[in-house]
Amino acid sequence: MMASSNSEDCCSDTISIDNDVAFAFVDFSGVDFGGHDYDKTKPEPTVGSEEVNCIELKANRMRKDPNLQHEIFPEGQFPHMQQHHDPQLFKAQSRRVHNLCKWYELGIRPSLSSSSLLNFDAHHQKDEDLFANEIDDMQILLLRSIQAQDALNTNLPPFPLGDYEDRLKVAPSTIDGAGNGLFTTVPIPKGAIVCYYTGYRHHYQSQKRLKDRQYIMKLQNGWPKFDRRNDGFIDALPTKDVLARFINDPRLEERCNVAFEHIKEPEIWYCPVVAQRDIAIGEELFVSYGPRYWSEARTIGG
After folding, report:
1. Can you give the residue ranges of the SET domain (predicted)?
2. Which residues pair with residue 82 across a beta bridge?
């Protein structure tokens, strides 16, 4: 993706690829946050002392110098070799991310009671140090929530494929200086789902530390639109097989032939790219990134 000529911005979209961080909550629906009646008959979750010491060292450095925050956080944008997706592990990883986020954002500890077995499984052998401390260490909580999100990104379910995913090709863009673009090798009818924009998943805090923001999309999953607690972020940078990341913005409304479709349901971590008119063989796909993207006055390279 790359900026084109200084013509007028393309049409405004309900979804934009930007770094708007005007909210600080993620969706915690369906997560069990009970009381603090720990079940002493069950083994305590444990975590390796080496990992704890590393995290505490980083947290102590950050307390002394808040400017080190971005250096201390995991980078979060290295491509992972995706192994076979484990649905049960993914369920536990997702719950752990939600629990740690709510713990950090609202100060509510997850219950590890006998009635909260899903929570116990999610945190087992990972967060013993957090539960053992009566006083929450916010820096370690933040780091742990980010680490949990990164772990989840190594076990993502297969990405969805659009109707024309296997009939698209990456080639030099027709926009001068824009790098590569995405082209169709077959006719595409209006209304077809051409492909999907997806990638690594991030909550509010984990996306803040990402340095390369070229391919970050905010999914406005809340309904109505002003309910932003369900919002999430996807980063297509590490996922080279997501073809939608090569679609450029021509910054001319009449040239946009596809659009990002607004997602109205929570827990949908992809964005359909929908044809806005009949598209001929060989045409380059163009989409609006949204006005907020261009208001950052950044040149985006793809």
Report:
1. 166-290
2. none
